[in-house]
Amino acid sequence: MVSRSCVSLLDLASGNMMDFSHTPRALPRIMTVPGIISDLDGDGTNDGNSDTPSTVTLSKKIIVSNFLPLNAQKDLKSGKWSFSFDEDSLLLQMKDGFTENTEVVYVGSLRADVDTSEQEEVSQQLLEEFNCVPTFIPSEIYKKFYHGFCKHHLWPLFHYMLPMSPDHGNRFDRLLWQSYVTTNKIFADKVMEVINPEEDYVWVHDYHLMVLPTFLRKRFHRIKLGFFLHSPFPSSEIYRTLPVRDEILKALLNADLIGFHTFDYARHFLSCCSRMLGLDYESKRGHIGLEYFGRTVYIKILPVGIHTGRIESALNHPSSSIKVKEIQKQFKGKRLVVGVDDMDVFKGISLKLLAMEHLLQQNSELRGKLVLVQIVNPVRSSGKAVQEAKMETYTITKRINDTFGFPGYEPVVLIDRHVPFCEKTAYYALAECCIVNAVRDGMNLIPYKYIVCRQGTPKMDEALGVAPGWRHTSTLVVSEFTGCSPSLSGAIRVNPWDIEAVSNALNVAINMPDLEKQLRHEKHYRYVSSHDIAYWACSFMQDLTRACEYHYSKRCWGIGFGLNFRILSLSPSFRKLSNDYIITAYKRTSKRAIFLDYDGTVVAQTSIPKTPSPEVISVLNNLCSDPRNNVFIVSGRGKKSLSDWFAQCENLGIAAEHGYFLRWSGMSDWETRSLAADFDWKNTAKPVMKLYTETTDGSYIETKESALVWHHEDADPDFGSCQAKELLDHLENVLANDPVVVKRGQNIVEVKPQGVTKGFVAEKVLSLMIANGKPPDFVLCIGDDRSDEDMFESMSNTAYGSSLASAPAIFACTVGQKPSKARYYLDDTVDVLALLQCLADASKSKSSSTETQVSFDNFV
Question: Which protein family is named in the record (predicted)?
Fold first, then answer.
């Protein structure tokens, strides 16, 4: 709905036609107090959020869309521009979802060309009078941006139309893409002119501005940024045909909250993130989130609503009552079905007409009684496809009217002109049924408007001749490919391509018993009236506020160039481990424990040969030769592989299968975790894993002595992930009474005995050093995956939890910049080996005359 601050302007613009009523209900507001910004914030000159946020300045909402919610007209005589708010604009109506004292600024383009010499004056006028900031895009660039890339590439693709041939869409044009990027950059510059990045919220709308989040995030690392897509988001198979697919996907992930009308659209987006970027989503307390370089990007699923107050005001307007009586007289004795669509290839108008034709062919009793009033909105884009759709519409209409019409009766009334809103509401109020037959549509609010009009008002009921207290009715036939379909559970859903089924649905709708029509209508009206535009806007802003709560509790770095830019957001205490820093501590100490993961730490995950290189063997031997060091490889791999690979490292300790097997050195025997040696649970788990392996192409089972692991890294990402979730649940059920744990990791599902973790290895080694009277004064642990997090936590608890004279120097280090319990990170295995080599060199340079190595021989 429109806020009170705009009502007077609307009244002036429309001659007080719309007397808006306000929705008294509102969602509970969320108040967020930002945290403290770290002083260490990367490039402070590039981040507007580098200072403590002000508690005095009130935040405003910056709404960014391709078009401003304005009408513009130039007086040809005086040369003066006049502007007024566009009462139909969703951007204007959504202000009712904000508190009354919220300042709203709009950024977008005008629907009129303003001469360069007038732009500065017009900009000042729009900002002062309407709180609007116009983006004056050069006409040649705008043509390539809007009519080129948006309408000829994105719009067809997002509606599942691929450019298979020149007759079915344009081939990708890099120049059009450059214009798209340039236009988004101009929008970003305009936002920067009016934003207070510490306080304000920015809400970007629709597919025209999908790379805008990257430009804004690059300028202000902690900008509070939401994006809502009003069109469908196609399946990954369709989206991945776009040559600039990565750039757009990564740009969207620079937002804090991304909104979609339906779960299907969100599911397709998440699938693209999984397949193209390897990102998995999690649902926590009802909120879907993607972890992206330390930031959580939230996904919002909520269909937009309508402004019920405006529709009710239109129903109460005298012109609506007059029009209702005219239509009643024109169609006296007839039953009306209404359809309102843009002249668009995706709206399915011709399919709707064919269904009407089939209905009249099969039901002769309806001839002369049933009329389809098809209102066609003016075209918003031109092209061969639109002209062909228009020609087909007229051809089918003429054929139906020639075949089934007679003097005084036309089965199809095609209204192809601008229809005032009051006239539309009159048709809605009189029609027994509304049909939306789009083959693909983002949302489509026509059914919502129809329901409110059928509910009527006292004035409209009087014009219709309806007695007070009359229970209103309505029926809907809705394509299952429209975004509004899931929310209208009482509608008759149809496949628009099945002409016979659509025809039968129309027949069912108009012949439905009145009681059923009433019940369906009441159900729909309850939903539409409670989930209006104010509810939608308020709900989105609440989720955006929640998504930005922790902006100031982390340090931010900008990484990547161009449209590959993204923010790395990490804990203030998390930093790269400096070789010089750790060597200083290393040289001061004499009782050291070093724990190293294998895959992804000393050997790259992408390495085809998994055996350690000669360089790795050399570095480990040099470290182990220092009697002050106790070095362990802690891996999930089997003991045979590890003992064979590290046979040359006699002083190296090895923990295999996450610590189920432990060997203190090459000269000692393998120890087994002191647990029940009953592996009967394998007889239960393995058949279940085999079942999922047979049904999941690319998956396989790894059998360890202590565990079973189901791998799906070579399976289809979506299907493999889905099967992994099912397998996890299945195994947890069948193994509920066994002493095992079922865990899901990176492309794996593992079953292993309880208490077997890498953390146990660190705890045992450190405890034995303390018990031996040689408490560690230096602890280094490096790993790269989830299983290593247990090791980071355990070594800190053991070292700090013991009653030691002085706290040891602890270095918990993860590989890769990502959220972790570790305080340090190294970029990759190259950095890890370089660090280990520096430590080995430091050991060589210092005399090792004093033997302080802990001997475990007395404890094994």
Answer: In the C-terminal section; belongs to the trehalose phosphatase family. In the N-terminal section; belongs to the glycosyltransferase 20 family.
